[in-house]
Design brief:
Chain lengths: 284, 525, 313
Amino acid sequence: MKVKVTARGGVRRLSLWQRSPSLVMGLVIVAVAVFVAVFPQLLTSADPYASDQAAMLLGPSAQHWFGTDNYGRDLFSRVVYGTRIDLLIGLGCVAVPFVFGSLLGLIAGYYGGKVDAIIMRVLDVFMAFPFLIMVIAIVAILGPGTRNLLIAMWIVGWKEYTRLIRSEVLVAKQSEYVQSARTMGYSDLRIMLRHILPNVISSAIVYAASDIVMCMGTAASLSYLGIGVEPTTPEWGAIINGGKSFINSAWWITVIPGAVLAVVGWGFSMLGDGLSDLLRADTH
Amino acid sequence: MNFKKLVCLALALVTALSLTACGGSETEEAQQPADGGAADAAPADTIVIGRAYDSDNLDPVVQVGNYNIWILDLMLEGLVQCTDDGSAVEPCLATDWTVSDDGLTYTFNLKEGLCFSDGTPVTGEDWVFSFERAMSMPDESWYFTVENIASVEAPDDTTFIVHLKEVSAATLPNLSMWTCGVQSKAYYEQVGDEGYVNGFIGTGPYMLTDWSKGESMTFEANPYYHIEGQPVTKNILMRVIADDNSRVMQLQSGDIDVAINLSMDSLYQLESDDRVVVDPSTSCETRFLALNTSNEYLSNPKVRQALSMATDPTTITSVATYGYGEVASTVLPTVSAYIDPSIPVNQQDLEGAKKLLAEAGYPDGFSLDLMICSGKTVEESIATLVKEQWAQIGVDVRICSYEKVTYTDNLYGLNFDVVVDYWTDDICDPSEFMEYLCDFDLCSGFDTNYKVEGIEELNDQASRELDETARKELYYEIQQRIADAYIYIPICTIPYANAESVNISNFVQTPLGNLRLATMTKTAG
Amino acid sequence: MEKLNYILKRILQMIPVLIIGILLVFALVRFLPGDTATAILGDKARPEVLAAYREKMGLNDSIFKQFIVYCQSLVRLDLGDSTQYNMPVATLLASRMKVTVLLTLMATAMTVVIGLPLGYLSGIRKDRLTDQGIRSFALLGLSLPTFWVGLMLMLIFGVQLRWFSISGWGETWIDHVKGLFLPALTEAIFAASVIIRNVRNNVVDVRGQDYVDFARCKGLGGFRVGCMHVLRNAMIPTATLLSIRIISMLGGTVIVENIYSLQGMGALLVGAVSSRDYAVVQGAVLAFILVVLAINLLTDILYSVLDPRIALK
């Protein structure tokens, strides 16, 4: 805690760009993506669902910036409207495991003993279980659709947060401020949430930024395997999957949405990277 | 003994040669320019076929599923067979036959000097064994093909007699099925039911020599094949390449010679590649929408008619199949000779549909779940377009894509509103499909939970009607009644999407899906 | 002795994991809609045929009884028979395992070969152009969805340039390595990106430590300092990360196997789930869990080898 304050004082005069260029670049890319997700209609007037038999598999042009797919749908508008879906999937996949995984890690690390052993054994099982199979099985059990896809991703996604937080808590538990909070007779809940959590959560936040990228990738991969969002939904992975048969003749269907997915993912990765840069600068 | 050893040696040599041939395809390719004209003359020894799934069971009586059925013709032959164009039955191992006056006894004259692929002669005992084994297994899927047979006998090795229980119009088509193919009794006695899963010994042009499950099957020419000069190609390697795209790319890169079970998308894309010939073969594979009348909205005939009017199968067919498919007027495969010509292809009439929907009490529409089987691009395209077309009359469609088994389970449980349904004939006769359509109990009125008045009796009549014209009339009547109930919306029949390298010729897939490869060749270069 | 005790303790800890794993997979597959009969016989099977098949396969027994039967056969080390392939699960697993194991080994080797030098280079050139370039590459590698990378590599190197075979497993060892090159590279790009970032950060950290300065003061050259001190110390956290990557490559192998039509464990498992081949799903997941547990154990042991200061406990 102390270190943090002095360090921050020392670097205050540096601009954010100087302290971490990747954070700024990441923020910009993510901000653009969020803007597109919120106001897709500002960017395109084409209906992402409207097919046009006369415009099948057209290459990129002034009229169709990203070309059209095999139904003659405008790919630019599909990618634009897909931004919202993909961001929601990315954030949705991460939010719940972030909260629950972190809490489990907190509990396991703080209490130790039997609680820890049980949580860690379950975690071991989930770590060892081939996660894609679990996702596939869960989606098969629950039925298709975005909601069930999210649930499946939650069930497999919590473990990294638990591991991360637990190992940090094990260290933080030994620190002076926690020891003194204990001697002051604060309740376990208060110590965990007010004293430990703020000091350990940063690593989970950094991980979450890259996890969003991985979740978007996994969701896209699942679309590739035919599991995932409802067909016709302009989800990026689904668009890429729909174009994979045309990869030789109509490369734009796979290459462009894939590149967009990569850029947005890159933005999130840089955001996470930048965050961890800042944290490292703060603690050194 | 000595002869056997020689054959073994020869086979081993051939195998070794073929292995090196396919293992070193790259070097072979590199050397071609140097070899010059010499290589052009001789056809290749081995042809590699890429398919999406492996077979799982080769017991002719027990197996189910296209991936078994399609390759059985390579190894198995019967008295008669379906013609290459799927329109009729022609002689195969029988040269001719006579039918008794009461229509209950068929006497077949068999070709002389027939041998199994292991060199042993085909005897009457083998014929009787093969039929009686199929007839003794009533729990198996294909039992219906032998159900009507009372008994069989083989007075000598070139005569075979089939006694029927009752007169049936589908006798010869039934006898062309794999359940009625001749297999070596001696081999069966050696391996039993369990070994039969991995293959049998028949008289077909090829024999299975190696099977790495889930990966590949190796077929070698049957040296005792009864047609002189066939099969032309010595080895056929069937490789499992699950991903459609990989199959396309391997075809383009020359790793495989023939790619079967492609998607329409891939076929369309391959049109522009001059190394490859696109070969969509006529099939009996239909696509239609089945409306589940247990649904509140769909129980109303006006709603069903409105949905039918809102659908434009012509556009759907041209977009979903890139024009390879043939738009259908009834649920029967378009290749069928029994389609009622008086039923027109459905024409879209949005105004009429809206009016009907309003009459039915739903002027603002409603929403429906449309079920498809995941990973099938044609189904997905059909669903996508149906969703768009029905949206125009206010019906909101949610497409539910389920993996195969869940889809199947939902079909059995009638757990859907509308489904992109399909049928594939296994036999070159309408009787099989008609039985499913007309016998309500077989699959809940073919996934509609609707009993069309009188069609079961009509079908019974038709199955016993030996006069072709009268039989057609009965089937027309059935189709008319089904059409009037608006429980199906016929879309199209789609072809088998196959593609071959330019140097492959005579790759044949019958409309029933059977691969006929005895004359297939690959010229070098 | 201490080590042996530790290993024994770890093996004991694996037992509950295995038991929970067995229970979990057993429950999971039986919750799936449909059953082996619907999977094998298809949607237009005659009702009596379906019923007969269910009876034959014991699918009408209660779940509890099925579980008891399964456990009994497990005790006899019998994994059962595959309904889809009509062969013993153990034989099937053995033939599929070799593909996945070789693929993962090659991918791991590539990960190390790409990840370590680039990460090290990036670390010692901190904030210079090289570092920026390598970091951007690594970030990009993290952001690209695996299946897309696989498709692109296949399209470019397999179809257009024809540098590598895309015909899968092949017949000989040379075929195997050739056929697995692109799939392994596909997997390695993501994993190497993770490793590059990690090695870089560790190198940066370690270079700031006293003993590196001390080594320099002793007059050791840049290369020796690099290899002996910086890289070695940076390796320790990287080893854990690498083991996590290997495990996740094993778990995600299905996508790559699907694209490159390899018949490995991933493809087998997905196929078995979709054809409700219970015995295969159970056997394969069990094998996966065992492999993962073994990798974890090995990592811990490797840890103590790399850094003797870390006590095994």
